[in-house]
TrEMBL record:
It comes from Desulfurivibrio alkaliphilus (strain DSM 19089 / UNIQEM U267 / AHT2). InterPro entries: Nase/OxRdtase_comp1, Nase_comp1_CS, NifE, NifE-like. Keywords: Nitrogen fixation. GO terms for molecular function: nitrogenase activity. This is Nitrogenase iron-molybdenum cofactor biosynthesis protein NifE.
Length: 460
C-alpha cells in the first residue's frame, strides 16, 4: 500500500495513502468530486466503527429496554455504556448483557444459549422490550435470531426484536439501517389517543449530558408536544405511539433519517432535518418547527420570544471569547456530517476559521453542503485515518481539533488543543446554553498557557 506526499504550501506536506485520494478534497477552483459511503480501505486503520457498533449506539439510549449482545464477550465490552446517554427514569440500558459465545457454541450453534439468556433476563428485569444484536460470528454460523426472538416474544408477551448487525456486512451506516429496521417493528403498535395536533417526535438526539431535556424544554415553551424521543431518554411505549405525531424532527440524519423515511412511507408523517448545535442552527430548528404549524400563529410568536431571550443572555459573553479567538484555526472530524455543518458555523460565531472538516459516515450530499459553507483551501475528508489526520493538523497548523475519543490522542501527541464532541462526553453542547459551554471550552483549551511551551509555538 503506497502513500504520496502532497505539497500544499508553507513547505508542509500531508501524507495520504494513494488509494485514499478520492475521499479527500481541497476547496479550490476545481469541481467538487468526492468518493464516500464505501467500505474502509484495508490496512488504513479507519476511525470508523463496525456495523454492530453502529446499531448499538442508536438503540442503546432506549432506557427501559433490555439490550442483549449475541456474540463473544468482547463485542459487549467494547460497546458497554458507549454513549453518555442520561435517563430520567429507568437505567436498564446501562447494563451490558452478552451470551458470551465460546468455541462450543460456535461449533454446535448458539440458539439454545440465546433462548435461555433471554428468558432469564426478561424474568429478572421485566423490560418493556428486548433488542438482540447479532455479531459477526453469529452471521457466520447462521443462528436464526428471528426464530428465537419470535418464540420468546410469544412466551413472554413483550416485543423481542432482532437487530441484524453482523459487523462484516458493511460499515457503521449499515448499523444505523439495522437499528431503524428494528425500531420500525415497534412504531405503530401503541395507542395515539390524546396526542396534540401540534406534536413532534425528536429523532437523532441521544440525550448526551442531558441535552434532550433542554431541547424538550424549548419545544414546551413554544407550545409543541414531544411524543417520542428516538432514542435519547427513550421509552418503548413512546416509540410504539410515535406514529401519532404530526412531524418528525431529525437531527442525526445519518443515524435515524431512514426511520423517518419509513414512518413517512408507513404513516404519512413528514420529516425535517435540523441541528441543535450553534446559534444559527438552533434558532433555525425552532423556527422550522414553528413554521410547520401555521394554523397556530401563537407558536411562532412564542418561538421568536424564546430566541430573543436566549440570545440576549448569550451574545455578550460570546463576544468576550471572540476577541481572544479571532483568527485561530480549527479542524473537525466527527461521526455524522450533520454535526460538522453546525460546528463550522459555531466556530465562525466565535471568530475562528475551519481549515479541515471530515466525517466517518458522510454522504455525497453532505460533502457538497460542506463545500458550500467552508472557506477556500479547506480540506474535506471522508472516513479518515490517524496518518491523514495527523498530517492535516500539522499542515494547517491548527489551534484546536474537535473529534471523539479516538482522535484525542492524535491531537495531544501533536501538541494541539482538543474538544470532545463525541457520544462519550459529559458536557452539554447543544442548544443556546450548549453554544456558551462550547465557546468556554474552546477558549480555555486554545488559550491555555501550556501551548507556549511547544517548540513550534516558541519559535513563532
Amino acid at each position: 500500500m503506497s502513500s504520496v506526499a502532497i505539497n500544499k504550501g508553507k513547505n508542509m506536506q500531508a501524507t495520504v495513502l494513494e488509494s485514499r485520494q478520492g475521499q479527500i478534497w481541497r476547496k479550490d477552483d476545481a469541481p467538487m468530486v468526492m468518493e464516500c459511503n464505501k467500505d474502509s480501505l484495508a490496512g488504513a486503520v479507519s476511525q470508523r466503527a463496525c456495523v454492530f457498533c453502529g446499531s448499538r449506539v442508536v438503540l442503546y439510549p432506549i432506557a427501559d429496554a433490555l439490550h442483549l449482545v449475541h456474540g463473544p464477550i468482547g463485542c459487549a465490552v467494547y460497546t458497554w455504556d458507549i454513549r453518555g446517554a442520561l435517563s430520567s427514569g429507568p437505567e436498564l440500558h446501562r447494563l451490558s448483557f452478552s451470551t458470551d459465545m465460546q468455541e462450543r457454541d460456535v461449533i454446535f450453534g448458539g440458539e439454545k444459549k440465546l433462548y435461555r439468556a433471554l428468558v432469564e433476563l426478561i424474568d429478572r428485569h421485566a423490560p418493556a422490550a428486548a433488542f438482540v444484536y447479532s455479531t459477526c460470528i453469529v452471521g457466520i454460523i447462521g443462528d436464526d435470531l428471528e426464530a428465537v426472538c419470535r418464540k420468546v416474544a410469544a412466551e413472554k408477551g413483550i416485543p423481542v426484536l432482532p437487530v441484524q448487525s453482523e459487523g462484516f456486512k458493511g460499515n457503521k451506516r449499515a448499523g444505523y439501517q439495522a437499528a431503524c429496521n428494528a425500531m420500525r417493528r415497534l412504531v405503530g403498535t401503541g395507542e395515539t389517543a390524546g396526542i396534540s395536533p401540534y406534536s413532534i417526535n425528536i429523532l437523532g438526539d441521544f440525550n448526551l449530558a442531558g441535552e434532550l431535556w433542554l431541547i424538550r424544554d424549548y419545544f414546551a415553551r413554544m407550545g409543541v408536544e414531544v411524543v417520542a424521543n428516538i432514542t435519547g431518554d427513550g421509552r418503548v411505549a413512546d416509540i410504539q405511539r410515535a406514529h401519532g405525531a404530526a412531524l418528525n424532527v431529525v437531527q442525526c440524519s445519518g443515524a435515524t433519517m431512514e426511520l423517518a423515511n419509513m414512518m413517512e412511507s408507513d404513516y404519512g408523517i413528514p420529516a425535517i432535518r435540523v441541528s441543535y448545535f450553534g446559534i444559527e442552527d438552533m434558532a433555525a430548528a425552532l423556527y422550522a418547527v414553528a413554521e410547520f404549524f401555521p394554523q397556530e400563529p401563537a407558536i411562532m410568536a412564542r418561538t421568536r420570544e424564546l430566541v430573543r431571550e436566549e440570545l440576549a443572555a448569550l451574545l455578550p459573553e460570546l463576544e468576550q471569547y471572540r476577541r481572544d479567538l479571532q483568527g485561530k484555526k480549527a479542524a473537525i472530524y466527527v461521526g455524522g456530517a450533520f454535526k460538522a455543518f453546525s460546528l463550522v458555523k459555531a466556530f465562525r460565531t466565535i471568530g475562528m476559521e475551519v481549515v479541515m472538516v471530515g466525517s466517518q459516515t458522510g454522504t455525497a450530499e453532505d460533502y457538497r453542503e460542506l463545500a458550500e459553507i467552508t472557506d477556500p483551501g479547506t480540506i474535506i475528508v471522508d472516513d479518515s485515518n490517524p496518518l491523514e489526520l495527523a498530517s492535516f493538523l500539522q499542515e494547517k497548523e491548527v489551534d484546536i481539533f474537535v473529534g471523539g475519543v479516538k482522535e484525542r490522542p492524535i491531537a495531544y501527541k501533536l501538541g494541539v488543543a482538543f474538544c470532545d464532541h463525541n457520544h462519550e462526553r459529559k458536557e452539554m453542547l447543544a442548544g443556546f446554553e450548549g453554544m456558551l459551554n462550547f465557546a468556554r471550552e474552546v477558549h480555555a483549551s486554545v488559550t491555555s498557557p501550556v501551548w507556549r511551551l511547544l517548540p513550534r509555538r516558541a519559535a513563532s
